[in-house]
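User: Quick sanity check before I run a bigger batch. Here is a single chain. Can you write out its predicted 3D structure?
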Amino acid sequence: MKLISVPKTVTSSKYTLKGSTSEPAKVTIKLNKTEHTISTDKNNAFTFPLSLSKGINFISVTIKDAAGNETSSAPLSTTYATGSVYIPGSSSTKHLPN
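Assistant: Done. Predicted structure follows.
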């Protein structure tokens, strides 16, 4: 399984998780306590729109191939930040959506 990296911090409640597998598979995506199962497309890729909650969001991905073999990602997390935050490498803060 190959996942496009998940940023540590996002400034929008919408984020699209993207990845691929080496063969057709069912993909189970768990966001916090909610699970969604989708199938890979004809190129063995998948995308899934996440609706993030304010603060830290925990994400896990498990793939299951036709033979029943399962592979899981390492635990992932991203923070949906609102308000004002310091941007590393910048001398200012950025106002984020509430």
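The chain has a mean pLDDT of 88.

User: Great, the batch can go ahead then.
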